[in-house]
Design goal:
Length: 513
């Protein structure tokens, strides 16, 4: 497959995925590779340009990450960001030193002035804000380079050797705080690397389908459908590619949102595939009966999912391929650090041990979430399915605090549906990253008509976030909250009080359990 490619060499910076997302947003395909990738491998990818990411090290420290110096002799444009910029400066004969005073170190939003004759800055204003995060600075720029941006503390905020197509920026163009950051990345891609911009999900769909057909031949493919966006889009892509050679086992654990299971099933009617829906609600509820501890709930659901799938897989017998909906952020993140486990996330990663298959295929392995959604649209999945907000694998089990019963799940489903309906009606859904109702295990006294009630309190949660690592609680207008509250207590038996969660993450998490 001959598509334009930008190679992003990863030096360990925290925004590296964002760089890749920005490049893709500019309609250019890119891949993130470790900085240790051998030169021959990089060149074999046929890159139109290379981006060096930021990273936590200092270029002058012993053992700091480096690239093969011959990379600079390949005639390929390079954009260095933060650490990547300093690395390029040092390797090409400049010098990088620690900033001596606090004033020369820069963190956060910084007023920056640009030389607009530089190809990187074409079409942007002369002054704007960039996001800096560096304690080192370039004392001397390498021969052939000139300084093309300045800030108060930093006499060399960006450098360029336009004849070789080499650019370095001390700030982070990939983060939203850098006002014209995406324009600068686009300028690098189109003005310097001279790409055409051939990366669209329409194109990807066609190539992916022919690649899958070629690989699978007349083989059999099995996919475990959880009903989420990723596994649904993977299933649709395979359905389009291999039709009746595909078996989808949709394990409905009975803890999805209102009507969701039926909607997922209906979306696959248009393909001639072997669609097996296992309605396992009773089975899951039985296993979960009396369980109150969140991590136990997750574990039980994860294991039971595998058990149900295994039983179905046995009925089907040996298959050639087991398909999974792994997406690019999982690929980039896998093997990255061992941060403390706050919540174990249930996915279908444990399946391979239980299925008789030859090879795994992961047709979404190269795609970011936004791209997965776009591909879903291209494949004709309904909009409401592809734009769905994130929904945790264990579903409503972690939104019913304490023990789970069918009655509680039904109550929560009704309340959650009203919340979502009113948010959409008010046009607030576009402003929110995730929003849902939680059935608390608190009961309190209320009054309805002339009678006393003693019912559940329902919590509403709505957050705004870019990455779900941190999140702010959403400022939903009071009138909208009022309408939601009135409707829920009037329409859903068993709920007599509504509270709105006003904690951010951290210290709270998005989900309650
Ligand atoms: P937390 O609650 O950790 O949520 O702040 C961050 C994001 O992760 C989702 N989440 C899960 N997703 N299995 C999943 O597949 C889980 O067990 C799980 N727990 C939380 C949550 O909905 C939010 O989008």
């Amino acid at each position: 497959m001959n598509r334009e490619n930008i190679v992003i060499l990863d030096f360990g910076g925290q925004y590296n995925q964002l760089i890749a997302r920005r490049v893709r947003e500019c309609r250019v395909y890119c891949e993130v590779k470790p900085y240790t990738t051998p030169l021959s491998e990089i060149m074999a990818m046929g890159p139109s340009g290379i981006i060096f990411t930021g990273g936590p090290a200092s270029v002058y420290a012993d053992g700091s990450p480096k690239v093969d110096p011959e990379l600079f002799d390949q005639g390929i444009p390079i954009l260095g960001i933060c650490y990547g910029c300093q690395l390029m400066a040092q390797e090409l004969g400049g010098s990088v030193v620690p900033a001596e005073s606090d004033t020369a170190r820069e963190y956060g939003k910084t007023d920056t002035v640009f030389d607009l004759s530089c190809a990187l800055f074409s079409g942007i204003p002369e002054k704007s804000i960039t996001w800096m995060s560096h304690g080192d600075y370039m004392e001397r720029v390498p021969a052939g380079f000139k300084t093309v941006a300045w800030s108060k503390a930093c006499p060399t905020a960006a450098i360029a050797d336009e004849s070789r197509g080499f650019f370095g920026v001390q700030y982070h163009p990939e983060v939203n705080h850098t006002q014209y950051g995406t324009d600068m990345i686009r300028n690098f891609l189109y003005n310097v690397c001279k790409v055409k911009g051939d990366w669209t999900m329409g194109n990807y769909k066609d190539t992916a389908i022919s690649d899958i057909r070629e690989k699978v031949g007349s083989g059999k493919v099995l996919l475990a459908l959880s009903g989420g966006v990723d596994s649904s889009v993977a299933a649709a892509l395979l359905a389009e590619a291999v039709g009746s050679q595909l078996t989808c086992v949709f394990v409905d654990h009975g803890l999805m949102r209102k009507n969701e299971g039926n909607e997922v099933e209906a979306a696959f009617k248009k393909w001639d595939i072997n669609f097996v829906r296992v309605n396992a609600e009773t089975r899951f509820l039985l296993k979960l009966a009396g369980v109150t501890e969140p991590e136990r709930k997750r574990k039980i659901i994860g294991e039971e999912f595998i058990r149900v799938f295994e039983e179905e897989a046995k009925k089907i017998g040996a298959v050639d391929y087991l398909a999974q909906g792994t997406i690019y952020p999982d690929v980039i993140e896998s093997g990255a650090g061992d941060a403390a486990v706050i919540k174990s996330h249930h996915n279908v990663g444990g399946l391979p041990d239980f299925v008789d298959f030859r090879e795994i295929i992961e047709p979404l392995r190269l795609l970011f979430k936004d791209e997965v959604r776009q591909l879903g649209r291209e494949l004709g999945l309904p909009e409401y399915l592809v734009t769905r907000q994130p929904f945790p694998g264990p579903g409503l089990a972690i939104r019913i605090l304490g023990d789970i019963t069918k009655e509680k799940a039904d109550t929560l489903r009704e309340a959650d549906a009203i919340f979502r309906e009113e948010i959409a009606k008010a046009g607030e859904d576009k402003n929110l990253s995730q929003y849902f109702a939680v059935l608390t295990n608190m009961r309190s006294v209320g009054v309805m008509g002339d009678g006393r009630t003693y019912d559940h309190a329902l919590a509403l949660r709505a957050v705004v976030t870019d990455d779900f690592m941190t999140a702010d609680w959403a400022r939903i207008p009071y009138e909208v909250l009022d309408k939601i509250s009135t409707r829920i207590v009037n329409e859903v038996p068993g709920i007599n009080r509504i509270v709105y969660d006003i904690t951010s993450k951290p210290p709270a998490t998005v989900e309650f359990e």
